[in-house]
Sequence to fold (586 residues):
Amino acid sequence: MAKRLWMATVAGAACLSVLGWAAPPPKPAGYVPPRTADGQPDIQGVWNNATITPLERPADLAGKAVFTPAEAAAYEKQAAESNNRDRRGKDGATDVAGAYNQAWFDRGTKVVPTLRTSLIVDPPDGKIPYSAGGQKRLDAAAEYARLHPADGPEDLALADRCILWYTAGPPMLPGPYNSNYQILQAPGYVAILVEMIHDVRIIPLDRRPHLPGSVRQWLGDSRGHWEGNTLVVETTNFTGKSRFHGATENMRLIERFTRTDANTLTYDFTVEDPATFSKPWSASIPMTKSSGPIYEYACHEGNYAVPGILGGARAQEAATK
Amino acid sequence: MIAAASVAAMLSVTTLPAVAQATISRGPRTADGKPNLNGIWQVLTEANWDLQGHAAAAGPMVPLGAIGAMPPGQGVVEGEEIPYKSEALVTKKANFADRLKLDPEVKCYLPGVPRATYMPFPFQIVQTPKFILISYEYANAARTIYMEDPGPAPVDSWMGQSVGHWEGDTLVVDATGFNDQSWFDRAGDFHSDALHVVERYTLHGPDMLMYEATIEDKNVFTRPWKISMPIYRRQEKNVQLMEFKCVEFVEELMYGQYRKKPAKQ
Fold:
């Protein structure tokens, strides 16, 4: 808790362009979640989705969908050492960028309880199924980023700009730290307060139509309904600027929240975007009950990263002229 | 016919039990019997321009013309004047003079409390017995009101720490733990990190909330002072909060000087 408080207090935009990906869930049959006063399955509380299981299966684990317990323990040990290693270099840039260690990160220490080697459960190889067109756009974007790493704020990561954090998504993926959410339920609504960056997703359950297609939002436009004990949320109206794994504004996201035991909220999602992916792909991440509280992360108000990165790039250009 | 309908209406009212009548007049209830504040709300006041009464005035940006002018307001401060200490009044006036540079709203910073309430944007209340979430459209600001006191605020913040309780049918929120960065309006009204706000939310019928905030800050004011205003339920079919993530809109203002190539204005 002391560390979390410290992290929240720092309030600087994280200078992190690295993604931390996380974990999947257990499904004990027969768990019956409590009900809210208006009869919804009760998924309220503070939840955390940090895990060291990556979204995509690492190349060296190709063909291995699930760890043995011994392999999982070895992977966890290796991840802990890797996250905590001293990355500092001798020159200024690598010294600053490498100064992040476990004191900063809060990626979790465990793989997902299913021992899967990727959060992606479909396709079976644990990889995002990019279409040729999607891959081409990603490659072009990477080449542009290489040539123009910091011409202006638009070239920087959305997290560095304090516009959207990895945990907000949607889909809501674990981030480097503060992967915390508070869910509240009122009649007709489920609300998700995302600690980073005080984003709130308020999901109406009344089957109303989506916003007009002309309206595009960073968090899209979410509509939910209950299927048994599972909250199903469909999100559309994304902006093309969020570029979730290269996806276009036409991405369609289906999320499924199921409380599979008192302390686990299983979060499954499926991403569709024919312009980017050859087929829909799905991942599963367990969210674990946390004691909270949720802190204010005033990212933009303490953003020294953007002027620092852009100003540094200009100074570098001036020095090499 | 008209007379018959009136009589029927009178009868139906007079035959309601007293408790039900009281409930109707005070608005809806939650399952646990509290006033039901759930919904999307918004003020209709010019308080964000200036809490005190003010005539219309030109705005600080000539190119904006009438769009940027300040609409007139009768004021929301009880007793008209905010009771500044003399040195603090000097600061307020300096704030106003340099407001384009100093008003945190210009930079899309979190609005603080009570300003979040009367920004010209809607907010949504999500009410549960233990926590009441208020999600503000402006700058995706949010605050959680704890209905069980978690103890002193662990750290100062823009939105502070809010602890609520019910006094009869009024939600009373005690807000502390603020930093000294937010303002109360575009007129330069400000506070220190000693700010303490007590808010009162009372339903008047299903679609109106009366809002009061008592503001105390011994570093800035000679005594506590109070603002009040009604807040109205947004009535549009399928109304929802939309995104006003204004960070993107202030990047040119804040970081344009660091661009490789200056943006075309």
Observations:
- Residues 2-320 of chain A form one domain.
- Chain A touches chain B through 51 residues (CB under 8 Å).
- The CA atoms of residues 150 and 289 of chain A lie 39 Å apart.
